[in-house]
Amino acid sequence: MLKNYTSTVPVSRSIGHIEDLLIFHGAKNIMKEIDPTNKRIEAVCFIITLDGKDIPFKLAAHVENVETILRAKVKKRTPSGDQKIKEQAERTAWKLISDHIEISLALVEIKQRDLRQTFMADIYFPAKQKTYYAIMMAKGFNLLPEKT
Question: Does residue 6 fall inside a structural domain?
């Protein structure tokens, strides 16, 4: 079951909450990446200094994936219904990211995780324009241990 699939929280409020959480936990730069086609926020990027080194991160909402799930639940499609699904998908995706960050940073606060561990998959390499996860996926996760 998709959490927050009926969320009424505006995207701007979810993203504002994300920014507040990141600032509280030491983000020194926060930027939003905008899709030039539909003028919607695709990702929140930020920099946190860890051990004297600036580490960039990129958290993408992947609204299109949520939209696919929501569309699969609709039997009869209409143009107005399609627009409502797009809007709901955006609200749901960003609310999920907001919840994820809030929970993840709570684990950092209670020292069950550190920031690198929490956001390791989202470490961003600007020169490659990819996250650590995307790089590992492209390499077939070959750094993972063999089965024992």
Answer: no
User: Partners of 32 in the beta sheet?
Assistant: 44
* Beta pairing, strands 124-125 & 130-131: antiparallel
- Strands in 75-117 per DSSP E: none
Provide the domain limits for residue 92.
11-138
Q: Are 59 and 101 in contact (CB under 8 A)?
A: yes
Residue 73: the pLDDT is: 83
**63, 89 in Cβ contact below 8 A?**
yes
Closest CA to 100 of 114, 123, 119: 119
Give the distance, in angstroms, between the CA of residue 64 and the centroid of all CA atoms in the same chain. 13
pTM, two decimals, is: 0.85
As a whole-number percent, the residues of the chain with pLDDT over 90 amount to 63
Torsion angle of C-alpha atoms 115, 116, 119, 123, degrees rounded to 10: 130
DSSP 5: T
Place of tokens 């063999």: 146
